[in-house]
Q: What sequence folds into this?
């Protein structure tokens, strides 16, 4: 396997970037040289490049790698990667991504690679995100939402990973929205309880909702990095990377 992890999501908007950034922040604090990569990103505004997922990950990791290495494919339209690339008359090339990843991997002790959308999102005419994960030979940290719908999405995604024999480090549950009232709280509690009974991989979280993620991103990342789920996740990643050295 490669020297790192791939952060995938059960869906879009589940908090992959927050989990990735918080994990990187924690690894850096523990003295680990962490590299980052966001191979494909859509919905990138030319007017706010520092707000992109790739830019946020780079700032968190304090790396001086070039943006073209970290994020070789950046598209303006907020569409699925295949559609966003087609709109720009481009094609996402796995070999190019692999080349950029290998250049980054030799510079850092541990790589944190963040996916785009869900696991089966089309990246090319005949391949999806799973194909890239298999080629990178990275185990997956799966980020899922805690609450209504989270059980089905998590179990289906774990089944898809198992089908391709992709190892899973952990399932990290996240609160991407304010939990609200008692009904939402009960939905979250039951989601955690039922998933804990049904999954064979380590289950972490839920990572508490970060209200400052939109207006004060660095503060939200710091708070998440200090949370118990991310501390546990970082220790798991460090142990895994050390075992491969």
A:
């Amino acid at each position: 396997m490669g020297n790192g992890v791939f952060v995938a999501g059960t869906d879009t908007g589940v908090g992959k970037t927050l989990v990735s950034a918080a994990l990187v922040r924690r690894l850096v604090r523990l003295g680990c040289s962490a590299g980052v990569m966001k191979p494909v990103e859509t919905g990138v505004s030319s007017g706010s490049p520092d707000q992109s997922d790739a830019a946020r990950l780079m700032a968190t990791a304090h790396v001086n790698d070039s943006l073209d290495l970290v994020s070789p494919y950046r598209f303006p339209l907020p569409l699925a990667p295949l559609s966003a690339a087609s709109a720009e008359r481009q094609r996402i090339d796995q070999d190019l991504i692999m080349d950029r990843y290998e250049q980054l991997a030799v510079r850092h002790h541990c790589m944190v690679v963040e996916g785009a959308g869900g696991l089966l999102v089309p990246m090319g005419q005949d391949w999806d995100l799973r194909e890239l994960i298999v080629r990178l030979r990275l185990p997956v940290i799966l980020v899922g939402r805690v609450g209504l719908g989270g059980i089905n999405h998590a179990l289906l995604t774990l089944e898809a990973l198992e089908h391709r024999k992709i190892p899973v480090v952990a399932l990290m549950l996240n609160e991407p929205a304010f939990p609200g009232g008692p009904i939402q709280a009960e939905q979250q509690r039951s989601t955690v309880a039922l998933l804990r009974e049904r999954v064979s991989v380590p289950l972490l979280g839920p990572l508490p909702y970060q209200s400052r993620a939109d207006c004060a991103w660095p503060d939200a990342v710091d708070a998440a990095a200090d949370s118990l789920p991310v501390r546990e996740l970082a220790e798991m990643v460090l142990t895994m990377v050390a075992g491969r050295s």
Notes: The first strand starts at residue 4 and ends at 9. The radius of gyration is 17 Å.
